[in-house]
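Input chain follows. Return structure tokens only.
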Amino acid sequence: MQGIKYKLRSSFFNLLAGHISTAPSTAQTRKHTEDIRACMLAALGEAGARRFPYLVVRIGNALDASGLWYLRSSLMQALSQLNGEMRAREHIAGLSSLFEGLLPQSLGARTSPLEHDLRHRIA
């Protein structure tokens, strides 16, 4: 009985403090992951799908958002060959923002030291 009181009291105070989890439901997460998958395949387009069929299969078979996250580098390589590196970087930057809230913080995008050096050289 005391455990139930503790849980109830703890939940109540967490609610007051705003600590109740607002993580997306499993259905929302699945939908968001499928949206990311669709964006990745759309970025490749028909020409990319013909030229890189293995990548289409890998994107289609990725089990979750972290699997898709790790495929960004392969997608970047394919897009670079199709459209040039600058356009590929733009696609990947936009795509990376879609992963927000789906990955552990340790998998989040980090600032590249190369980008930092490039900005200072240009300025």
